[in-house]
Amino acid sequence: MEIEDLTRLLVEFYEKFSSWEQCVVRETGLTPAQMHTLEILGSRGDLRMKDLAASMGVTTGSLTVLVDRLERGGFVARRPHESDRRSIVVGLTGEGERHFREHHALHLRLTQEMTDGLTPEELAQFPAILRKITAQL
Fold this sequence. Notes:
With 137 residues, the protein is mainly alpha-helical. It has one domain: Winged helix-like DNA-binding domain superfamily/Winged helix DNA-binding domain (Arc Repressor Mutant, subunit A, Orthogonal Bundle). The chain has helices at 3-26, 32-44, 49-56, 60-72, 94-115, 120-136; strands spanning 47-48, 76-80, 88-92. Helix 2 crosses helix 5 (94-115) and helix 3 packs across helix 4. The protein is elongated and about 55 Å long.
C-alpha cells in the first residue's frame, strides 16, 4: 500500500472516530475535553492535578479552568494531597463515575462493532499494531 493511500485511510478513520465521539459526547451536555478528563480519572483513578494535566497534554492553568467547571457540575471533587501539601488531587464523584461508566460502555460497543469484521488472526495482531503506532506518536 502506498503512503498516500494509507494517509487517506488514517485521515478518514480519524474523521469518522472524531465525529462519533463528538456526537456521543454532545448528548451528555459535556464538552469533549470534560469527557476526556472523566475518562482519564475513571480509568486511572484519582490523580494529582499536575499528573492529570501531563496525561492530557495541557497546562495546569488550562486544566484548572476545566476542573472548576466539572467541580461546579458535581462530576469531580478536589482534595489536598495526603503527603504533599502543595498538590491537589482530583477524583470522580458518584455523578462523574456514572458518566464515565456510560461513556466507557459506548466505547466498548464501538470497539466491538469495529472489530467484528476482523478475522481471528487480524484481531490477535490489532492490539500490538495499535500499541506500536501509539508509541510512535
